[in-house]
Amino acid sequence: MKFSSTILICFILSNVSLWGQVQPAPGHRNLELIVGQDHVEYVDFIPHVKAQVSRPEILEIIMVPSRREILFRPKNAGESTVFVRNMVGEISARFMAKVGLHDKSKIVQDLRAHLGDIEGIEIGIRGDDVYVGGRIVVPNDIGRVAVILEKYHDVLCLVELSPQAQRTIARQMQTEIQRHGMRNVTVRVVNGSYWLEGIVDSKEKRERAQQLAVALLPASLLSLAERTHSTMKYNGPQVLQNYINSP
Fold it and tell me: Is the whole-model pTM more than 0.90?
């Protein structure tokens, strides 16, 4: 009886030991990623604002603690380990990321090298298409986007100006129009369109105000719109509306 009990205890301990070996560590996850395709993981704790990345040349990590969200942005093929700590400083999650290449990953890498420093821009792969999107904050940056994309005709362009950039252009239009003596004319942005409003004392001034506003529209943005078959046209209602009253 004593011998049987000893065998039973050894069997239980052996299985417990094996179970402990095959089970993954708490918070451990394996990821397979592709250069050009961002990936989001969620955790059940509030993560620290910074993660430890063993090979930052392979992987960029963007933390969003308020959403308990971790964005993985693959940069090059390879493997990298990511350690995520909680607000106390304890390691609460570990990710083993294996990054591979899509057949269009090289295009994404080139575009990021040329345009990745532009605030508000997004570059990646959706399905089988490479895209450049986002809302650009600095109006002048749209010119660089237009120049670079001339070399990549198969890249989808989903770029638009941010509301902040649109308001900046509207202020420039209004300043220029008023500088030419039409001080009762204002410019505001409504649903992405520039509205000219106010009163002038002649039809010639009304037309002149519109000409000044059109001259300050980013030509490169318009060329991008035409490139993507957008409804945005040089003097179309989607871009500029002239509501100035005149005799």
Answer: no
